[in-house]
Amino acid sequence: MRKDWDTYFLDMAYMASTRSQCSRRHVGAVLVQGKKLLGAAYNGAPMGVPDCSEAGCMLVEEFELLNQGGDEQVVKKQRCIRTIHAEQNLLLFTDPKDREGSVVYVTDQPCWTCANMLANSGISEIVYHRPYPKDSDKVKSLMQQKGITFRCLEAYEPPQGTMAEVQH
Ligand SMILES: [Zn+2]
Ligand SMILES: [Zn+2]
């Protein structure tokens, strides 16, 4: 069966994510303009400095407020800050002219900082697969304010072997 465009480009984002060396998160993103692939990126350390596989993850601890069915809970979480996020790398390595009116396919729902940057990058649509509940509400409201289409492909299944086993 022929793959539809959403599946095709999200597959490519997952392919890009397999390049990531962070043991905590493998994220990939691609830039698409009129069905043409104009860039691909993944989360990683800046070029020329040791990445997570060489230097280990750079972990910080954060407290997160979780709300499950009206039940609020403070949970301690660890996050790796060594890497530049896939979406940010995508913005660093694509042309502003190419981004105007384009679509970003990304394996994971963008965090607040990435969403904020994407909102100011000229793109008109974001398609993602895995949810990221922590920043979801404020990210969705930002996209609404900016008129950026924000879609989750819930029924999507990544290509075999592209979903990394990660620690959380
Ligand atoms: Zn890492
Ligand atoms: Zn991010």
TrEMBL record:
Sequence positions that bind Zn(2+): 85, 111, 114
One GO MF term: dCMP deaminase activity
Keywords on record: Hydrolase, Metal-binding, Zinc
Presence of keyword NAD: no
Pfam families recorded: dCMP_cyt_deam_1 (PF00383)
Domain CMP/dCMP-type deaminase span(s) in chain numbering: 4-150
Cofactor list: Zn(2+)
Record's GO cellular component terms: cytoplasm
Classification via Gene3D superfamilies: Cytidine Deaminase, domain 2
SUPFAM superfamilies linked: Cytidine deaminase-like
Ranges annotated as spanning the membrane: none
InterPro entries noted in UniProt: APOBEC/CMP_deaminase_Zn-bd, CMP_dCMP_dom, Cytidine_deaminase-like, dCMP_deaminase, dCMP_deaminase-rel, Deoxycytidylate_deaminase_dom
Active site, renumbered: 87
GO BP, sorted A to Z: pyrimidine nucleotide metabolic process
Family of the protein in this entry: Belongs to the cytidine and deoxycytidylate deaminase family.
Protein name, as recorded: CMP deaminase
Organism listed in the record: Paenibacillus rigui
